[in-house]
Design a protein that fits this description.
The protein has about 290 residues and is an alpha+beta fold. It is built from four helices and 14 strands. The strands form three sheets. The chain has a six-stranded antiparallel beta barrel.
Length: about 290
């Protein structure tokens, strides 16, 4: 007996498929399922992101103002504009200048680029002016300069430019580092070191390097311009003498005023009182 013909519809599942519960599932169909899920997820995320973007932009105010919803209840600190300006400006930086009728320079025996500079016939007052953008000018007695020096330049010795004029009218300029000023009448003395320049021609075309040069042994009229200083904020000083005739004694370096009971304040008060002085705070409204 011949075998019956096989129904094409009942043929074995094609390669790459299998039967499950009477159904034929191709591996191609199964592998495509995650792609549909991934596509759905991407579409959902995109739609949510677009909705967020539109909602966020709808609450944006003028440029420079924070983005916030109208019903926001977060506490926001309001800062006074004047206070912001004061904080941004900080303490002004001061530069100083003084003049003298002449002077001398004595070089160190081992290093001719350092030595002792003495200005004679110094001006009674030293002029101070602020660094930009602040516009201000002051003057104070040149005889006060040595006493204020430790406080003014506690962090580092200042740089200075000394401009001399010879008897024939020739002017010369010297760039120096100043330290340890003393004064005797109108003679103001510094320990100085000549400053060696560096090559900055790439920053400002035309600049040339300046060699370390010290003043001559004697010279005529001079003008001295001293590097900037930023005065300290509230700080401690010690006042000695009777009222109306008090002398201010500054510590070797400024002692900031943090509080009346800080360790630094307590130590300074004790030292001041031991020297029969009265501790005080400058630069504070307290």
């Amino acid at each position: 007996m011949s075998e019956p013909e096989q129904d094409p519809t009942s043929a074995a599942p094609p390669e790459g498929s299998h039967e499950s519960d009477g159904r034929t599932i191709s591996t191609a169909d199964r592998s495509s399922t995650p792609k549909w899920i991934a596509a759905l997820v991407v579409t959902t995320v995109f739609a949510a992101g677009a909705g967020w973007l539109v909602a966020d932009r709808s609450t944006t105010k003028d440029l420079g103002e924070p983005v916030a919803s109208e019903d926001s209840t977060d506490d926001v600190s309001v800062v006074d504009a004047a206070e912001v300006d004061a904080d941004a400006a900080g303490m002004p930086s001061w530069l100083f200048s003084l003049t003298a009728t002449g002077g001398t320079f004595t070089a160190n025996e081992l290093n001719p680029n350092i030595g002792t500079l003495t200005l004679t016939g110094t001006s009674a007052d030293t002029t101070g002016f602020t660094d930009r953008p602040v516009r201000d000018a002051v003057s104070f007695g040149t005889d006060k300069l040595p006493g204020a020096w430790p406080q003014m330049f506690a962090d580092s010795d200042p740089n200075a430019v000394l401009v001399t004029r010879d008897a024939d009218g020739t002017r010369n300029t010297y760039v120096l580092e100043l330290s340890s000023p003393t004064i005797d009448g109108t003679a103001l003395t510094f320990q100085v070191a000549a400053i060696e320049g560096e090559d900055h021609s790439s920053q400002v075309p035309g600049m040339t390097t300046r060699q370390a040069t010290v003043p001559p042994a004697t010279f005529g009229e001079v003008a001295l311009f001293i590097d900037s200083v930023t005065p300290p904020g509230p700080h401690w000083v010690c006042l000695t003498g009777t009222e109306g005739n008090q002398t201010q004694i500054n510590p070797p370096a400024p002692i900031p005023f943090d509080s009346w009971t800080s360790k630094a304040a307590t130590q300074f008060e004790a030292q001041c009182v031991a020297n029969k002085g009265t501790p005080a705070v400058l630069g504070s409204s307290q």
